[in-house]
Amino acid sequence: MDKIGIFFGTDTGRTRLVAKQIAKKLGEVAAAPVNIGRTTLADFLAHDRLIVGSPTLGEGELPGESTGLSQPSWEELLPQLADADLSGKTVAIFGLGDQQKYPDEFVDAIGILHDAFVARGANVVGRWPVAGYEFKASRAVDGDHFLGLAIDQHHQAMLSESRIDAWLEQIKPELLR
Ligand SMILES: Cc1cc2nc3c(=O)[nH]c(=O)nc-3n(C[C@H](O)[C@H](O)[C@H](O)COP(=O)(O)O)c2cc1C
Known about the structure:
This protein is α/β, with parallel strands linked by helices and about 180 residues long. The chain has helices at about 15-25, 40-45, 75-80, 110-120, 155-175, and strands spanning about 5-10, 35, 50-55, 90-95, 125, 130, 140, 145, 150. Strands 1, 2, 3, 4, 5 and 9 form a 6-stranded parallel sheet that branches. Helix 1 (about 15-25) links the parallel strand 1 (about 5-10) and strand 2 (about 35). The structure holds flavin mononucleotide. Flavin mononucleotide binds near residues 13, 56 and 102.
């Protein structure tokens, strides 16, 4: 079985740290986390099981040139995926955001990535309850769940590790089967 690919975008490094934490917890079944702006489409597509992470930047946007990043990120990768067939791939998404400063766009990037992967046929797993967060609106919500794991390192950093642990236990059976 190939290793679980872990790919992240980041501005100030928090998402990278969470990606590294996830990789460490998964152990040898996971590949080392890779910045999505420093890889090739072929390397990304080489994995059938993926964990992808992103902060939300701008006003509910993916990281990339339009949010002021000096290197490519998810904003630049997604158009490259336009013709890709992701059926057969299982993808779990985590996202970092700030629920107090951006209560109307909290972790929107999870929703943007979710829609892009689903549209290309991927099986997206890892929904996470909205209970315990305080925000007004998010593209990442469907009913009473986020479409991936929401992490707020600004206001709920103390909860992050237990959230990551519980989420990994939830997605492991789906990623490892
Ligand atoms: C300019 C700017 C815009 C942001 N916009 C949002 C947003 O729309 N929604 C949100 O949940 N968080 C938003 N954030 C918060 C970031 O997602 C948060 O700081 C995150 O931890 C950054 O992760 P990184 O260190 O991997 O870049 C914004 C932060 C900055 C600096």
